[in-house]
Input
Amino acid sequence: MSDVGTLPRPARHDAHGTLLAADDVTFGYDRAAPLLDGWSQRFDAGEVVAITGPSGRGKSTLLYLLGLMLKPSAGHILVDGVPAQALPDRERARLRAGRFGFVFQDAALDATRTVLDNVCETALYRGDDPREARMRASALMERFGVQLRAAAKPGQVSGGQAQRIALCRALLHAPQILLADEPTGNLDPDSSRVVMGAFREHAAAGAAVVIVTHDPSIVAQCDRTVEL
Ligand SMILES: Nc1ncnc2c1ncn2[C@@H]1O[C@H](COP(=O)(O)OP(=O)(O)OP(=O)(O)O)[C@@H](O)[C@H]1O
Output
């Protein structure tokens, strides 16, 4: 993996603004036992925030709420100050594709499509030029040390490679809000360092980066920690 290279800048830049916030959020799969109960937090442009806490406490669930994949049973998720759950599903999907990047804990690559197509998925959904998206994807994949043959499928790559491919997919459209669930869990220390460097660089370009992690060395490189 290489430290050099330039990430695309987030499309909109607000150096100090709050991009994403949870306001008095309550959620539980079992309503009688909420994982979050009146939880509030804001995430600003330019910062990298670690979310920590014991296993099963609800960290991944929180990322799904922040990423508009789950709806709170009470309270609001605010994107640019606007409550997102009130939006129609299509609008929420458009907002997710336009403003969010998501690195899932298990990479969540589509096994039926090539690795390159996986990386380009969100950019193409947004309507980006396919040729240009593929060129940017190849450059990102090179940066993260996953230059694979064009026809390679997710089933043919290692766990660490899959994680880096998922990271390329999340970064390709320069999302203003990047949510990452244990993004370095399968990586060696050198690869982790490059990934954290990319997160820091992405935040410096104006994004809010939120990382769920158990790794103290990752926590140490974040601007602040939110303990669940
Ligand atoms: N789809 C679901 N339906 C019902 N319960 C769920 C669902 N997803 C997660 N849970 C439960 O909610 C709780 C929180 O899960 P979550 O994955 O958010 O925790 P976590 O803090 O990310 O854990 P870990 O650190 O082990 O990844 C767990 O008890 C889990 O079993």
